[in-house]
Amino acid sequence: MEGTVFAPALEGMKHIKSDREELLTKPFLDVCKHILPILDKFGAAMAVVKSDIGGNISRLESMYSSNTTRFNYLFSFVQAEVETKTAKSSSSCTNGLLWLTRAMDFLVELFRNLHEHEDWSMAQTCTDSYCKTLKKWHGWLASSSFTVAMKLAPDRKKFMEVIGGAENTRADVEKFFTTFSPILQEIHKFLASMGLDSMKAS
């Protein structure tokens, strides 16, 4: 039986941690990349989110490629930038990791809502997820753009048909948000311990 659209990301999550339970850079970025095709199913509504995620993945991948040994572990980017006092720069990898994690928070919440609130429209699902995750970090401009984009959200039934070709989609949606959520929380916890979890968008 063919796997669901979530299958590559779920498979990737099995490899995100090392034997010592440390988060690994490449497997984490690969999981985030596997989520991009799912966003395509939303159409125009997620174009901004997808572009943002893609940009942050590229920023982190570029730094990782510059020294794969040094940046093998996800938090090594942050530690290196804290040492050089560049972590708070808007173009830093720390900032990229923070916004990538926040975007993933939004998607985890979105799929949790889709799973738990079957009577909600897609617009309601997206708006609630946005309010719980990204909204407090966004300035007026980003928030307004997002509100407009959510009006382009596809019909819920059509969307579920598009992603739900396989029988076990519902189970995979649940697996996605229950497995990925603790990983994202771990990143937030680490960033918070360094005083870097509350940077806002201008």
What does this structure look like?
With 202 residues, the chain is mostly helical. It is built from 9 helices and no strands. α1 packs across α9, α2 (25-40) packs antiparallel against α3 (47-66) and α3 (47-66) crosses α5 (93-116). The longest helix has 25 residues, at 169-193. The model has no long low-confidence stretch (mean pLDDT 91).
Brief account:
The chain is mainly alpha-helical and 202 residues long. The protein has helices spanning 7-13, 25-40, 47-66, 76-83, 93-116, 122-132, 140-150, 156-163, 169-193.
Structure keywords:
202 residues, mainly alpha, 9 helices, 64% helix, globular
Topology:
Elements: H1 7-13, H2 25-40, H3 47-66, H4 76-83, H5 93-116, H6 122-132, H7 140-150, H8 156-163, H9 169-193
Helix pairs in contact: 1-2, 1-9, 2-3, 3-5, 5-6, 5-9
Order of helices and strands: HHHHHHHHH
SSE class? mainly alpha
Oligomer: single chain
In helices, the fraction of residues equals 55-70%
Shape: globular
The N- to C-terminal Cα distance equals 47 Å
Total number of helices:
9
Number of extended strands: 0
| Average pLDDT metric | 91
Tell me the β content.
under 5%
